[in-house]
Write a structure and sequence with these properties.
The protein has 382 residues and is of the alpha/beta class. It starts with 5 loop residues before the first helix and ends with a helix.
């Protein structure tokens, strides 16, 4: 049974599009971001609105390909396409952009995007478990803080940073609790609804209102569990979806799996659980705490990236997973290469079935994806 509060969650897409326009007209500063490595807390501490920018739809890619090569990651092309077509209200109303050097494709695309709006680029170290990397990343946090102070003519105090950290931790805790509800067997939420609730968090203009809706969804879902109402029955194979981020417009693999009868119980990717796993330490110096939290993100751009394997292992155990599906976008070299390591870990260490799906945002291979999803789900039923 689908929670009724999901109707309110879905309505946030339209509400936030209106609210971002109203906020701009009221003179509120808006900082647009793309990545889970981007510290929203610093933007919030500057009394600005921190929003995720559009990049999960096929629609603007044709326009992007007039400048960008066709054999490029669809996420990069979609992000740039939204920027040059003014079809993303969050990009349109952003005063400044925050970019990050997570991959070469994005890094070079940002050079072009920087001609459209003021942009600050955070240079991400490529090794997480290293004292030099942490020191470097702290300096990058300070540079972003200084950038916003200069752009908006204000001072970002430690007190404001601490308040922003507490707010974002509350959001993470709420979304972690929501995600953890699917550890129940059978799962009370579909993977599609879980994806939507977590993907939309980045577009919430009013963080408090967004947290409130998630808390309502948690409570209704718990009530449904107590009544024996679930999204799937107990026989549905339970799948963990890992890999590249997804959102509305790029969810075809997730949809195909659930239409084939599987219950996608956990989303390890950066639009799912990955950014929620670690909280910011509220007892430490704010900049140091932010650097530690964001640098701990187990992204495929890092080497080594054993943290991702650890997270996949923990989620598979907690969510009683029957199989793992690794989604990789075409031309996303880091995730495509790392899929070999993930496959080896899942099959040899976790002793679970594994499938990799490499695709893009288009509908051209929808039939093929559907057939592969159905075949994989059938093997899990045996």
């Amino acid at each position: 049974m689908r929670p009724k509060v999901m109707e309110e969650v879905e309505a946030l897409r339209g509400i936030n599009s209106v609210k971002i326009k109203e906020a701009h007209e009221e003179g509120k500063k808006i900082v647009g971001m793309y990545c889970v490595f981007s510290p929203s807390e610093i933007a919030l501490a500057a009394d600005a609105i921190s929003v995720t920018l559009c990049g999960t739809s096929q629609d603007p890619i044709e326009e992007a390909e007039k400048t960008l090569p066709r054999n490029l990651c669809p996420l990069i092309k979609s992000s740039y396409g939204f920027a040059v077509t003014d079809k993303c209200p969050y990009f349109y109303f952003s005063d400044v952009l925050l970019a990050e050097t997570t991959c070469d494709g994005k890094k070079k695309m940002y050079e072009l995007m920087g001609e459209i709006k003021p942009m600050h680029i955070m240079n991400l170290p490529q090794t997480a478990n290293d004292e030099d990397s942490l020191e470097f990343w702290e300096k990058e946090m300070v540079k972003f803080k200084n950038f916003l102070e200069n752009q908006f003519s204000l001072e970002i105090t430690d007190e404001k940073l601490s308040d922003a950290i507490k707010l974002m931790n509350r959001e993470r805790k709420a979304l972690r609790e929501l995600h953890s509800l699917n550890s129940h067997k059978p799962a009370p939420l579909s993977g599609m609804d879980m994806m939507l609730a977590q993907w939309l968090k980045g577009f919430n203009v009013d963080k408090e209102a967004g947290i409130s809706i998630i808390e309502k969804l948690i409570q209704e879902t718990k009530d449904n569990v107590s009544k024996g109402l679930f999204a799937f029955d107990e026989s549905a194979p339970r799948i963990l979806l890992t890999g590249t981020p997804i959102g509305v417009g790029s969810e075809k693999v997730l949809r195909a799996l659930e239409e084939a009868g599987a219950s996608v119980v956990a989303l390890e990717n950066c639009t799912g659980y990955k950014g929620l796993d670690v909280l910011v330490d509220e007892s430490k110096d704010p900049i140091t705490a932010l650097a530690e939290k964001y640098l701990s993100t187990p992204c495929s751009c890092m080497t080594d990236n054993n943290g991702r394997l650890d997270l996949i292992g923990r989620l598979c155990e907690e969510y009683k997973v029957d199989g793992v599906v690794d989604l990789t976008w075409q031309a996303c070299h880091t995730y495509n290469i790392e899929s070999y390591t993930v496959k080896k870990y899942v099959q040899e260490q976790l002793k679970l079935p594994f499938m990799q799906v490499e695709t893009d945002y288009s509908d051209s291979d929808t039939g093929q994806v559907k057939v592969r999803a159905e075949a994989f789900v059938e093997t899990l039923k045996i």
